[in-house]
Amino acid sequence: MKDIKERGNQTIVTEFLFLGFSNHSELQGLFFLIFLILYLITLLGNFLILTAIRINPVLHTPMYYFLSNLSFLDICYTSTTVPIMLVNFFREKKTISYEGCLSQLFFLVTFAGSESVLLAAMAYDRFIAICYPLRYPILMSNRVCAYLAAGTWLCGLVNSLTHTGLIAALTLCGPNQISHFLCDIPLLLKLSCSDTSVIEVALYVSCAIIGLSPCLFTAVSYMLIISAILKIQSTQGRQKAFSTCASHLTVVVIYYGTGNLNYNHPSSSYSLDVDILITVLYCIITPMFNPIIYSLRNKEVKVALKKLCEAYILLRYSCAQISS
Predict the structure, then answer these.
(1) Exposed e or buried b per residue across 314-323, where buried means at least 16 C-beta atoms within 10 angstroms of its C-beta
(2) Residue 108: its pLDDT value, please?
(3) Is-contact 72 50, C-beta < 8 A?
(4) What does the buried/exposed string (b/e) look like for 137-159 if buried means 16 or more CB atoms within 10 Å of the residue's CB?
(5) d(CA 132, CA 135)
(6) CA–CA distance, 265 with 258 (Å, rounded to integer)
(7) Which end of the chain is more exposed for a tag (fewer CB within 10 A), N or C?
């Protein structure tokens, strides 16, 4: 199939060529190994978090319910871009079809938007737990948690459907080269030969609603949380209250920080390598760090993971005894 077709007097793109990592063709094998290891760590870490929360009744609380959603989102998020990137390391032409590019864009925007709103929902959970502990069981009931989780997925889905539909309506002309290793809205807008003003307005609106609003809500929530923690009389009580928020706060800073750097840096002063490095931090490194942060800073998660490992070792030992 040709990557560009003629239709009337216009050239219509049917296939895209990724230029990401093209400046370092001699390091393709090393890049493949590095990103494969990072991807496997991300899958294993988030899968362990999901399993530990699922099988341990102690972790059946709103905070860990949202954490399980976060782990699932991180698995989906990295799986949208990393597998095809790994395959392309062994291909002379690092291509993706037009339909494949739109599909990748749809899932990428869905999971990124959902995670942004989910982190705000997790901040609300911590705010209620610290500032209104007596009303916590009512304000964060199972039904409320389910509604909040469903709302995060719905926000991401509606946002993604809107942008994917608008991008699909664009006429994309040659060249068909994307200066990256994935399909994203700003990258595709550069290839358009039709009016993009509507999409640009929609992009600014969605950035305000899906990106900036959850970030501001989370910031305000933590201001109130920190204010409430400082009012606690005992040092031990303050440390215990803050420890319940430390993991989430760390994840929030990393996610919104790398996200802001990824989408708001001045492109004119950045090279292709720097652009790719920033996107790798946002799309690959951050989802890998999330389970590590929660495992290292959360005592209950560490205990649950330890029990899970012990159960696995016991199961392997029992199977070995039966087979012998």
Answers:
(1) eeeeeeeeee
(2) 93
(3) yes
(4) eeebeeeebeebbeebbebbbeb
(5) 6
(6) 10
(7) C
Query: Taking the CB of residue 37, how many other CB atoms lie within 10 A of it?
Result: 11
Token pair 């972790």: residue? 59
- Domain of 266, CATH number, reads 1.20.1070.10
Domain span including residue 46 = 4-323
The pTM of this model reads: 0.86
Please say if the pLDDT value at position 3 is more than 90. no
Report d(CA 42, CA 26) in Å as an integer.
26
| 311 pLDDT more than 90 | no
- The number of folded domains in the chain is 1
Cβ 225 vs Cβ 127: under 8 Å? yes
d(CA 212, CA 113) in angstroms, rounded, equals 11
pLDDT of residue 198: 87
Who has greater pLDDT, 81 or 298? 81
**Percent residues over pLDDT 70 in the chain:** 88
C-alpha of 235 from chain center: 35
